[in-house]
Each structure stands twice: as C-alpha cells, then as structure tokens.
C-alpha cells in the first residue's frame, strides 16, 4: 500500500513562470539597491549575478546545487534574504496553485497519508512561497535542493529523504512533472511515480520521454491532462 507521497513543487503543485534574463527586472533591482545606497547599472548587475552563479557552480559535483544566498550577499551585503525576495518577485510573471492542489493534499491528509516535498529549488525563494500559498503545513517534511546540496536526479537527494524518515520505497510514490528529474529519480529507486503533464506534451512526446527514462517505466502512471484532480481520484485517494 502507498502511504508516502513525495511531491515535486513547481509545475506540479504550483504553476509558476519566472524569467531571470529580462532587462526590466534588473532595472527594478537597481532602483531597489539605490535606496540602499548601492549603485549598479542594470547590465552590470545582470552580468554580476550570472557570473557569480557560474563561479559558485564551477566546482559542484554532478547534480550538485548551490545556495543563492552567498551570491546575493555579494550584491547586497547584510541584506541577502530580503534582496532574494525582491529578486524573485521582480523575475516572476505569475505564481499560483493549480486548481486542485489543496483538495488533493487535504484528501491525502484526511486519508492518513504522509506527504513530503522534494524540490529542485532555492530555499531563499521557496520557503516563503510555500507559506504565501498556504502549502507549508501540508508537508511532513520539506527537502529543498539548495539546502541538501544536491538536486534531482541525484540519488543523494532522494536518499536524504528516505534515510531521515526510514521509508520503504515500496510504500512510496514520486509525483512530478519532469521525466528527467522526478520520474528518473523514482525509477532509479524502483519507486512508483506519477507524471503530471502540466506542460501539455503530446502523447507522442510523452511516449518518447518514457522511453528515455532508464528502466522501470512500468512503474510510471501518466496523468495526460495534467489535472491534479485525476491524481486524487485515481492514484492517491485510492491508494
């Protein structure tokens, strides 16, 4: 019986679109920094950000993950967490829950299931967004790649969750919207998984992505419409 539900976040529970390359974002950030007597030209700030990220990532192991707080500390010393919030909101076009997100999580809670988050993300952005969207209390535990130091599909990321909570993979399901990270990770652990097609891939593309996953595709369920309601009706709440 499946008792542990491991969710991806962005593109799975939260619909989000950000663009860290748009020029107007850096114009806005420069205005914010000027109020703190820190002066950059927008193009200079943009170059500094991407160059510093590149430097931080240079010595990472395969599927390693950096923490952006040290990057932001170089831009706005002593105020990195607040700058992270301004950076994120300046890059964001939208952030909202999918229509059935809360209903599914509420249903799992009512059914006595355990709910975990395993997200390739930055804690300096994600923790606040989990609170803002009301999702934070639903999770038994939250694993964010910037805190662990590895991201999906690194087995070390999933292993950190499994080991901390002594989970049996036969009692777990991984739910996400990305074959190369979420589904690949589940397959590597011979764990059941659910692919949510929130990006509107054609059936042919989904088949091709299934074929690219290394083994265990018979353990993958595909929700073709991408609607979480189907997950609740056909996968989660029926165990």
What does this protein structure show overall?
This protein is α/β, with parallel strands linked by helices. The chain folds into two domains: 4-15 and 96-236, HAD superfamily/HAD-like (Rossmann fold, 3-Layer(aba) Sandwich), CATH 3.40.50; 17-94. Helix content is 46%, strand content 16%. It has eleven helices and eight strands. The protein has helices spanning 23-34, 42-57, 69-75, 80-91, 101-110, 123-132, 145-148, 155-165, 179-188, 203-212, 228-236, and strands at 4-7, 14-18, 92-97, 114-119, 141-144, 172-176, 192-196, 220-223. The protein has a six-stranded parallel β-sheet with strand order 5-4-1-6-7-8, with helices on both faces. A two-stranded antiparallel ribbon has the order 2-3. Helix 1 (23-34) packs antiparallel against helix 4 (80-91). The longest helix has 16 residues, at 42-57. The mean pLDDT is 93.
The assembly state of the depicted protein chains is: single chain
Q: How many alpha or pi helices?
A: 11
CATH architecture of the largest domain: 3-Layer(aba) Sandwich
Please report the first level of CATH classification, the CATH class of the largest domain.
Alpha Beta
Number of domains: 2
Instruction: Work out the radius of gyration.
Output: 19 Å
Structural class: alpha/beta
Q: What order do the helices and strands follow?
A: EEHHHHEHEHEHHEHEHEH
For this structure, what is the CATH homologous superfamily of the largest domain? HAD superfamily/HAD-like
At the fold tier of CATH, the topology name of the largest domain is Rossmann fold
